[in-house]
Design a protein that fits this description.
The protein has 556 residues and is of the alpha+beta class. It has 22 helices and 12 strands. Helix 8 runs antiparallel to helix 9 and helix 15 runs parallel beside helix 17.
Length: 556
């Protein structure tokens, strides 16, 4: 659950007292409490239901493991998941608006805090400035991953109404700003400890986000001219080396690691709103108060189906499970890649749903066949804390963690491998597998596990596993899915930077019963390479911002 609710919603009022940034940084930023309130304003924009609170769940479309199970009917959500999105999609427009609102609030907070008289001498003020820069980096990264080159500035909108009506800024310039902000955050944020909340940025979060930024920057991306390219070899090596510096900082600190209670309990506790700052580098906080649609769709839209209870009083309903939409399904063949002892299998992939028995006034578990659809299982209504299950039927208050420790472990393994040190990659990959109860993979048993099992099910012909470095690349293709499946956007952006999103989905469509029998996996047929790696800039923005010259992203 979020930072205190009263603080979150009062900060929304504070930040909308005046247009745009909501306050005058020259008179507002007088002490640490006001600076902290400005941070909460950034977080409110990020956690809004039209941003990370809900829309982010499906904003990034489908991938080779997860897809919408709602068929080909047209609406905003399905169009995003099925790669049928257009520039008039209102969910894209709302996400664009909220991300720019968060950027503007971050710009205002950075300028205001760093302009305070005691900024250089007050440790708390300096920390808050670093946190504002962390969240600005987070939002800026969102913008360039989803839309590529975008209008961008670090000036608050108080500098003029048209502050964001600018031409596109090349993403490499935005990456430079992100790195500058994260350098600051790595210098001045404190490290997390057992008393920390992941709802506020820490130094570990900054190093981890930096790792992801560098690995995405080193990969392929779609350019405005329709080409797909990546940085030069020397630049990539620089990014991989820098990534490992941040990884080493995390390891040297020693606090972050796997959740002490294990993988299954990690996800049960996340659904129960039990915070942890050890495995979760940082959370996007959520709070749902009674009678309002605040809160999030995590564990509702991307959970197993849980039927709405009917015919009960409000008092009874409060202790029953609310609705679980089951909007997403997992490609069932992925289940076969997990070993029987791999705890991730039955957490990541849920094979049952809950129907409502109106006569007995209780939910009844019902097993589902693979063909009819298995669900993302990491977030579940049944794991939500008693008394928090049904405050509002279609929302909950589960936080979303954008980055967990095993993600950083696997990114470090990839960086070592790309630097020609696969011998350093195997132990890191196996650290993740061993926590899950899976057999470690080595060059000795690679053929048995990967060639004879993984590649037999999913023949990834677009990847070459010749040599030890190639073997690690193929293993990471599978391992990042087995560990991070369903964690919004991670898989899509992995496949984008590896330049294989389209081929991966088409390969899956060719082998999966989901596509062969139900045609629900239509994303593979609709996906267009050189278009759908990016979202369209909203038409309203194209029409309003004449500096864009009426040019949208390729294919839109």
């Amino acid at each position: 659950m979020c930072l205190a609710a009263a603080m979150l919603w009062s900060c929304e009022d504070t930040l909308t007292e005046k247009p745009s940034s909501g306050y005058d940084k020259d008179t507002y930023f007088q002490d640490a409490s006001k600076a902290d309130m400005a941070i909460l304003g950034i977080l409110q924009s990020i956690s809004d239901p039209n941003n990370y609170g809900n829309t982010e769940i499906y904003l990034n479309g489908a991938d080779d493991a997860v897809h919408s199970n709602r068929g080909v009917a047209r609406d905003n959500m399905r169009d995003l998941c099925n790669y049928l999105v257009t520039s008039t999609n209102s969910d894209v427009e709302n996400a664009w608006r909220l991300k720019y609102q968060a950027l503007d609030r971050a710009n205002t907070a950075v300028a205001g805090i760093e302009g305070m008289a005691d900024y250089t001498t007050n440790e708390e003020i300096r920390r808050l400035g670093a946190e504002a820069r962390f969240w600005r980096a987070f939002v800026s990264f969102d913008l360039i991953r989803a839309w590529g080159d975008v209008p961008y500035t670090t000036e608050p909108s108080g500098a003029g109404y048209e502050a964001y009506f600018r031409p596109r800024t090349p993403r490499e310039q935005i990456y430079d700003q992100i790195c500058e902000d994260l350098d600051n955050a790595c210098s001045y944020l404190p490290w997390a400890d057992a008393s920390s909340t992941p709802e506020r940025a820490t130094q570990g979060a900054a190093h981890a986000l930096y790792m992801r930024v560098l690995m995405q920057r080193a990969g392929y991306s779609l350019q405005l001219d329709g080409t797909f390219s990546r940085p030069s070899g020397s630049l990539r090596r620089d990014y991989y080396s820098k990534c490992l510096e941040h990884w080493q900082a995390i390891e040297d600190n020693g606090y972050h690691g796997f959740y002490d209670a294990g993988y299954e309990k990690l996800w049960q506790d996340i659904s129960a709103s039990i915070l942890n700052s050890k495995e979760n580098f940082f959370d996007v906080a959520s709070y749902q108060d009674t009678g309002r649609r605040n809160g999030s769709g995590w564990g509702v839209y991307n959970s197993p189906v849980t039927a709405q209870p009917t015919g009960v009083s409000s008092a009874e309903a409060a202790n029953l499970m609310g609705r679980g939409q089951g909007f997403f399904s997992v490609i069932p063949e992925w289940q076969e890649l997990y070993e029987a002892g791999d705890v991730r299998r039955d957490i990541n992939i849920c094979t049952y749903r809950y129907q409502w028995d109106s006569a007995a006034k209780q939910h009844v578990k019902q097993e589902r066949t693979a063909q009819n659809g298995w669900y993302i299982g990491k977030w579940r209504r049944e794991w939500m804390a008693e008394g928090r299950k049904n405050v509002y039927m279609n929302y909950g208050d589960i936080n979303f963690c954008p980055m967990r420790y095993p993600d950083a472990v696997l990114l470090a393994a990839e960086a070592y491998n790309e630097l020609g040190q696969p011998d350093q990659a195997w132990p890191l990959i196996n650290r993740v597998r061993e926590r899950a109860g899976a057999t470690p993979v080595t060059t000795a048993n690679y053929k048995q596990i990967v060639t004879n099992k993984y590649l037999k099910k999913f023949p990834v012909d677009f990847l070459d596993d010749a040599g030890e470095q190639g073997q690690v690349r193929v293993l990471l293709y599978f391992e990042r899915a087995l560990e991070l499946m369903g964690e919004s956007g991670l898989r899509k952006y992995d496949l984008v930077r590896w330049n294989c999103l389209g081929p991966a989905m088409k390969m899956v469509a060719g082998v999966s019963i989901t596509h062969a029998k139900t045609k629900n996996y239509s994303c593979a047929d609709n996906f267009i390479h050189g278009q759908h790696e990016l979202l369209p800039i909203p038409l309203r923005e194209i029409q309003s911002n004449h500096s864009l010259q009426g040019i949208n992203n390729p294919g839109y």
